[in-house]
Design a protein that fits this description.
Elements (H helix, E strand, L loop, with lengths): L2 H16 L9 H15 L3 E2 L15 E2 L9 H15 L3 H11 L20 H6 L8 H18 L4 H10 L1 H7 L6 H18 L2
Antiparallel strand pairs: 1-2
């Protein structure tokens, strides 16, 4: 059912009955927003993207959140970061910068390639780290921080290279002896280091 068309038809009938001018009608944008609101009420597992193209849904269709925990409170994420950063001797500001750029602090985030959770662990990586549920914030941050520590050790504490390896893989960093010449990785490193400085200053 096209809810926008239904609303438009109802508005036209009301205008014919009341003689109200067309200017009083709801705009198509508002109608689409209302349609998205109704759709999300009917299908709670869908996420409405306000800036998405016609229909108000992210490109590729409905973005269905995987079954997982409810949104995690910022103070809970801070506690998990602090605990695991202390355990693995990693700067908590760096862990937080990775989370901010990987998932935007969304514990239910899933990337198009299948990376999962707050620190966007790939299933194989998660398994190697002993993470059985990447959507569990406690397991995800523990595994992700441990992985980050391994990268820092591998690249002699060079934060820039460790961050590049987090995105492109340690093999690519090893191959080039620097941040790989991939636009995505170079932008990622710049963004994470910018977030890192911001969190360190707090």
């Amino acid at each position: 059912m096209d809810i926008t068309a239904e609303i438009s038809a109802i508005q036209t009938r009301i205008a014919n009955i009341t003689g109200a001018p067309p200017d009083d009608m709801v705009s198509p944008e508002a109608a689409r927003g209302f349609a998205a609101h109704v759709a999300s009420a009917l299908h709670p597992g869908t996420q409405y993207a306000p800036g998405a193209p016609e229909g108000g849904v992210a490109a590729g269709g409905l973005a269905t959140a995987p079954s997982g925990p409810a949104p995690v409170a910022p103070e809970q994420i801070d506690a998990l970061v602090g605990q695991n950063a202390g355990t693995w001797n990693v700067d908590p500001a760096l862990v937080k910068a990775i989370i901010a750029n990987e998932s935007g602090f969304n514990a239910n985030a899933t990337s198009p390639v299948g990376a999962q959770g707050l620190m966007q662990l790939m299933p194989e990586t998660a398994k190697s780290l002993g993470v059985s549920d990447s959507y569990d914030p406690a397991q995800n941050v523990a595994g992700g921080t441990r992985y980050l520590k391994g990268l820092l050790d591998r690249f002699n504490g060079d934060v820039r290279l460790a961050v590049a390896a987090y995105n492109a893989g340690p093999g690519a960093v090893q191959k080039y002896g620097d941040v790989p010449p991939y636009a995505e990785t170079q932008n990622y490193v710049q963004n994470v280091l910018g977030s890192y400085e911001k969190y360190r200053a707090r």
